[in-house]
Amino acid sequence: MASLTLSPPASLLPGKPHHSPAATIPTTAVTFSRRELAVSLSLPLAGMLCSRPANAVEDDEYVKETEEVIGKVRTIVNMDRADPNAAAAVAELREASNSWVAKYRREKALLGRASFRDVYSALNAVSGHYISFGPTAPIPVKRKTRILEEVDTAEKALLRGSCQDRY
C-alpha cells in the first residue's frame, strides 16, 4: 500500500526567502461548530422560503377564494338532506370546486401548502360522494368527520399565512 505525503514547495519552507507576493498573505483558520454552520446556512434559505410571493394580490385572491370554497363545503356537509335546496347547493359547490381546482392545481407555489392539500382532498371527497350516490344522499358520519377536519386544518393554515402554510 502506497502512502502519499504532501509538503509545501521548497520556496515556502521556513528559513527560505519568499519572493512570491502570495506567500506573504497571512491566513487564519476559522472553525465552526456543526450547529453554527447549520444555522448560518439555513437562515438565508429560510428567508427565501418564507418571503411573500412577488404578486401578493394573487396570494390574497387565493385566500379569499379558498375561504369561499371552505364555507360552501361546510354548508353542504351540514345541510339537511331533506332540504329542497340541497340538490341546487350541491350543483353550486360542484361548479365552485371545479373552477377552484382548475385555477389552482397548476400553481407550483401552492402545491406545497397544507391549505391547498386539505381543501383539494375535502373537495375530492365531497364531489366523489355526490357523483357516486347523488345530490340528496347523506354523507356517512366517518367521511363527514374527515371532511370537516380537513376543512378546519385548511382554514387554520390560511390564517397562519403563506409562510407557515407548508407541509
Automatic annotation (TrEMBL):
Keywords (A to Z) from UniProt: Membrane, Thylakoid
Keyword Ribosomal protein: no
One cellular component (GO) term of this entry: chloroplast thylakoid lumen
HAMAP family: PSII_Psb27
Subcellular location: Membrane; Thylakoid
Ranges for region Disordered: 1-20
Protein name according to UniProt: Thylakoid lumenal protein
Gene source species: Platanthera zijinensis
